[in-house]
Give the backbone structure.
Amino acid sequence: MKKRLFLLLLPALLLACTPAATPAPDLPVARPNEPFVASPGSQFRVEIAGNLTTGYTWELIGGPENGVVELLEESYQPSSPPDEMLVGSGGTHLWTFRAGTPGEAKLVFGLYPPSNEPGEPEQVLTFIIVVK
């Protein structure tokens, strides 16, 4: 669990040490519990509002599966510039995926509280991806 705490604090530390964040490319965004249709080879993004300063974090806990989608990148974009980021200021967790072979995949994300003990997520979001 110490690793989870370290991994939780690492993005905040890195954000504090980096210049202004570059905006994420404009990609289609999947929505929870709504089928998202993508063509093979295309990229799309999952965006979930969050707040790293609270210690809560979103994690991908299910999928990608069977080559239907591939995770390309995971990042966090604060709502305010890193040099102005205050405790309590929010942001967005971003995951970028590439559609692979035709089929259906479920991407499941869990919201975990700050803790050194393993546990169940407090909230779960499911994204249904259809590649055709």
